[in-house]
Amino acid sequence: MEDCIFCKIINGEIPASKVFENERLVAFNDINPKARVHILIVPKKHIESVKHLEEIDKELVGEMFLAAQKIAKDNNLEGYKLVVNVGREGGQLVDHLHLHLLSADAII
Ligand code: 5GP
Ligand code: ZN
Protein backbone atom coordinates (compact mmCIF):
# COMPACT_ATOMS: atom_id res chain seq x y z
CA MET A 1 0.00 0.00 0.00
CA GLU A 2 1.32 3.46 -0.90
CA ASP A 3 2.47 5.69 1.94
CA CYS A 4 2.69 2.83 4.42
CA ILE A 5 6.09 2.73 6.13
CA PHE A 6 5.95 -1.01 6.74
CA CYS A 7 4.90 -1.77 3.14
CA LYS A 8 7.92 0.28 2.07
CA ILE A 9 10.16 -1.79 4.34
CA ILE A 10 8.60 -4.98 2.93
CA ASN A 11 9.22 -3.93 -0.69
CA GLY A 12 12.74 -2.67 0.08
CA GLU A 13 12.09 1.06 -0.46
CA ILE A 14 13.06 1.80 3.16
CA PRO A 15 15.88 -0.13 4.82
CA ALA A 16 15.39 -2.06 8.04
CA SER A 17 17.48 -4.46 10.05
CA LYS A 18 15.63 -7.68 9.33
CA VAL A 19 15.92 -10.65 11.66
CA PHE A 20 13.44 -13.03 9.97
CA GLU A 21 11.63 -13.32 6.69
CA ASN A 22 9.49 -15.83 4.84
CA GLU A 23 6.83 -15.55 2.09
CA ARG A 24 4.22 -14.17 4.44
CA LEU A 25 6.06 -12.37 7.24
CA VAL A 26 8.99 -10.13 7.94
CA ALA A 27 10.51 -9.20 11.31
CA PHE A 28 12.90 -6.34 11.94
CA ASN A 29 14.38 -4.34 14.80
CA ASP A 30 12.28 -1.40 15.97
CA ILE A 31 13.95 1.90 15.04
CA ASN A 32 13.18 3.32 18.51
CA PRO A 33 13.60 0.33 20.84
CA LYS A 34 11.72 0.31 24.15
CA ALA A 35 13.69 -2.69 25.41
CA ARG A 36 17.05 -4.40 24.93
CA VAL A 37 15.36 -6.58 22.32
CA HIS A 38 12.49 -4.93 20.45
CA ILE A 39 11.44 -6.62 17.23
CA LEU A 40 8.39 -6.01 15.09
CA ILE A 41 6.72 -9.02 13.45
CA VAL A 42 4.83 -7.85 10.40
CA PRO A 43 2.67 -9.66 7.82
CA LYS A 44 3.56 -8.82 4.22
CA LYS A 45 -0.14 -8.43 3.52
CA HIS A 46 -1.26 -4.88 4.31
CA ILE A 47 -3.84 -5.22 7.09
CA GLU A 48 -4.47 -1.94 8.89
CA SER A 49 -5.02 -3.27 12.38
CA VAL A 50 -6.61 -6.01 14.47
CA LYS A 51 -9.91 -4.27 13.73
CA HIS A 52 -9.44 -5.12 10.05
CA LEU A 53 -8.69 -8.82 10.48
CA GLU A 54 -10.91 -11.26 8.60
CA GLU A 55 -11.56 -15.01 8.83
CA ILE A 56 -9.07 -15.58 6.01
CA ASP A 57 -6.28 -14.06 8.15
CA LYS A 58 -6.58 -16.65 10.96
CA GLU A 59 -3.58 -18.70 9.90
CA LEU A 60 -1.44 -15.63 9.27
CA VAL A 61 -2.07 -14.35 12.80
CA GLY A 62 -1.11 -17.74 14.21
CA GLU A 63 2.06 -17.65 12.17
CA MET A 64 2.93 -14.23 13.62
CA PHE A 65 2.88 -15.74 17.12
CA LEU A 66 4.92 -18.76 16.06
CA ALA A 67 7.49 -16.41 14.47
CA ALA A 68 7.60 -14.46 17.75
CA GLN A 69 8.20 -17.71 19.64
CA LYS A 70 11.08 -18.65 17.32
CA ILE A 71 12.69 -15.19 17.37
CA ALA A 72 12.44 -15.05 21.17
CA LYS A 73 14.15 -18.45 21.37
CA ASP A 74 16.86 -17.33 18.93
CA ASN A 75 17.49 -14.35 21.22
CA ASN A 76 17.60 -16.56 24.34
CA LEU A 77 14.64 -14.75 25.87
CA GLU A 78 13.25 -16.79 28.74
CA GLY A 79 10.37 -14.39 29.35
CA TYR A 80 9.14 -11.63 27.07
CA LYS A 81 6.21 -9.44 26.16
CA LEU A 82 4.08 -9.52 23.02
CA VAL A 83 2.15 -6.34 22.41
CA VAL A 84 -0.32 -5.28 19.73
CA ASN A 85 -1.53 -1.69 19.83
CA VAL A 86 -4.91 -1.17 18.19
CA GLY A 87 -6.10 2.20 16.90
CA ARG A 88 -4.71 5.66 17.76
CA GLU A 89 -6.24 5.55 21.24
CA GLY A 90 -4.60 2.19 21.73
CA GLY A 91 -1.20 3.65 20.85
CA GLN A 92 -1.01 2.40 17.25
CA LEU A 93 1.08 4.82 15.18
CA VAL A 94 1.73 2.69 12.10
CA ASP A 95 -1.44 1.51 10.37
CA HIS A 96 -0.07 -1.86 9.26
CA LEU A 97 -0.66 -4.76 11.66
CA HIS A 98 2.41 -5.67 13.74
CA LEU A 99 3.31 -7.62 16.83
CA HIS A 100 5.90 -6.09 19.17
CA LEU A 101 8.30 -8.63 20.70
CA LEU A 102 9.96 -7.02 23.71
CA SER A 103 12.49 -8.42 26.15
CA ALA A 104 11.38 -8.40 29.79
CA ASP A 105 13.22 -5.13 30.58
CA ALA A 106 10.71 -3.23 28.39
CA ILE A 107 9.47 0.16 29.49
CA ILE A 108 5.85 -0.09 28.39
P1 5GP B 1 2.85 1.18 17.08
O1 5GP B 1 2.89 2.38 17.98
O2 5GP B 1 2.17 1.47 15.77
O3 5GP B 1 2.32 -0.04 17.76
O4 5GP B 1 4.35 0.83 16.76
C1 5GP B 1 5.03 1.31 15.65
C2 5GP B 1 6.49 1.02 15.90
O5 5GP B 1 7.16 1.16 14.67
C3 5GP B 1 7.15 2.00 16.90
O6 5GP B 1 7.70 1.25 17.97
C4 5GP B 1 8.21 2.70 16.06
O7 5GP B 1 9.40 2.93 16.77
C5 5GP B 1 8.43 1.73 14.90
N1 5GP B 1 8.81 2.37 13.66
C6 5GP B 1 8.22 3.44 13.07
N2 5GP B 1 8.82 3.75 11.91
C7 5GP B 1 9.80 2.83 11.73
C8 5GP B 1 10.77 2.61 10.72
O8 5GP B 1 10.86 3.32 9.71
N3 5GP B 1 11.61 1.56 10.87
C9 5GP B 1 11.55 0.74 11.97
N4 5GP B 1 12.44 -0.25 12.02
N5 5GP B 1 10.66 0.91 12.95
C10 5GP B 1 9.79 1.94 12.84
ZN1 ZN C 1 1.33 -1.51 4.82
Instruction: Examine the coordinates and then state which fold CATH places here, giving the name of the CATH topology.
Output: HIT family, subunit A
CATH architecture: 2-Layer Sandwich
Q: How many helical stretches?
A: 2
Order of strands, widest sheet: 1-2-3-5-4
Low-pLDDT ranges: none
Main sheet record: 5 strands, antiparallel
**Beta-strand residue percentage:** 15-25%
Terminal Cα span? 29 Å
Ions, cofactors and other ligands present here are: guanosine-5'-monophosphate, zinc ion
Q: What's the number of structural domains?
A: 1
Task: Write a brief caption for the model.
This protein is of the alpha+beta class and 108 residues long. It is built from two helices and five strands. The chain has a single domain, classed as HIT family, subunit A.
Q: What does this molecule look like?
A:
The chain is α+β, with helices and mostly antiparallel strands and 108 residues long. It has a single domain, classed as HIT family, subunit A, CATH 3.30.428. It is built from two helices and five strands; from the N terminus they run αβββαββ. The chain has helices at residues 5-10, 58-74, and strands at residues 18-21, 25-29, 38-43, 80-83, 99-103. Strands 1-2-3-5-4 form a five-stranded antiparallel beta sheet, covered by helices on one side. Strand 1 and strand 2 form a beta hairpin. It is globular, with a radius of gyration of 13 Å. It starts with a helix and ends in a 5-residue tail after the last strand. The model has no long low-confidence stretch (mean pLDDT 97).
